[in-house]
Input
Amino acid sequence: MPIATINPATGETLATFEPLTPEEVDDRLARAAATFATYRKTSFAERAGWMRTLADLLDAEVDDLAPLLTTEMGKTLAAAAAEVHKCATGCRFYAEHAEQMLADEEADAEAVQATKAYATYQPLGVVLAVMPWNFPLWQVFRFLAPALMAGNVGVLKHASNVPQTALRIEDLVGRAGFPEGTFQTLLIESKQVETVLRDPRVVAATLTGSAPAGQSVASIAGDEIKPTVLELGGSDPFVVLPSADLERAAKVATTSRCQNNGQSCISAKRFIVHEAVADEFLDRFVAEMSALTVGDPTAAGTDVGPLATEHGRADVEELVADAVAKGAVIRCGGQRPDGPGWYYPPTVLSGITPDMRMYGEEVFGPVAQVHRVPSIDEAIELSNATEFGLGSNVWTEDEAESRQFIDGVAAGSVFVNGMVTSFPELPFGGVKHSGCGRELSAHGIRAFCNVKSVWIGP
Ligand code: NAP
Output
């Protein structure tokens, strides 16, 4: 994929960038390693000061940053502005809590025959972040804020279609006052990732993206014995049981499926509805999905902008065509509009069967598949009949049912009567092919630390 800004609303190429040469990559890694040697000795208070300035810059520059996100990957301006402020919140959260999250942990000195024994959290070094375009700021900041607060330095390989956002992040970190080299953007292609990851100056990696990209990075990191955090794809179940508030469930289902123009890892993608309420839910859901305004992401009132890339839309169309050819019924949408831009309408399909590709594959666009089940047991079984295990939703007013779902679903999170989302306060991640390790919360900041045991003798 060329490194370029191509406006998804028009298909116009606005800027192209040459990938860094091996010598340029080497210079940046040398700078990162040199910076780490001194940056690791900075205090939490110093880092928190820079992190708070970074948060202030994000908030202050929202009117400039949000249109950049919209131009590079097509999300609506309102969604882009919300993402900018969410990054600022994440920075402030870790500025506030990092020191306490990484405080030494006293052990029972007597039990280990010491005068004092404890575990202490220390930074690892230069961490490589490979990031996707769908939340081009937030995905980076939820790594950057904890990693830098822990005393690590970062190098970023961002997705090839958001190069200007990638450069802007480095610029913001620099202007916030962090020492030069603390966070650098490497404009490189995915085939250059292996060299960076095998470089001895890079000690760990995190990747957010598809399962194949995760497999590739994890196998190289495994070969090098370097730790990784992987945040990969998802096909989240959204289970609706008979006691659910169907009106609210249908509205939230629509928001969840169509947020970010249908391109979120934690969007609800498979709607699994008890047969007692399936017809009513389907009617409400189709009405909500059909009522969304699709169009120019810069226009006020647009709910769903274009998909980010031309091949992304082609992938969605292929999955819908495959399902329809095998008997699925289109309840709404299903046809791309005429004209420029990579638009695809909110679409609902029923009559899904296991031979259809979308039964097992992630659909990265505003396409919902609705399944009918006779019981909660079968709802849980179908929820788990996937290679993924990222988020999950259940809608019920029955506490015993919600407990059964919480216990039974194989996923990194469960949201009861609400939409899956991420908060700095809660761990975020998945199981199975949705990834391993956790971001956010104390788990996220400890992911790139050496947990060093200290034993002091008598
Ligand atoms: P992708 O193709 O895997 O790309 C993600 C990043 O990995 C990009 O920077 C890409 O670079 C790079 N990359 C791709 N193949 C690589 C390889 N073999 N080696 C090293 N780097 C490689 O993912 P996408 O299609 O852009 O993003 C959508 C996917 O991300 C979906 O599956 C979505 O569910 C997932 N996602 C997961 C989370 C989560 O937190 N779990 C969050 C957001 C998105 P190039 O752009 O240069 O190819």
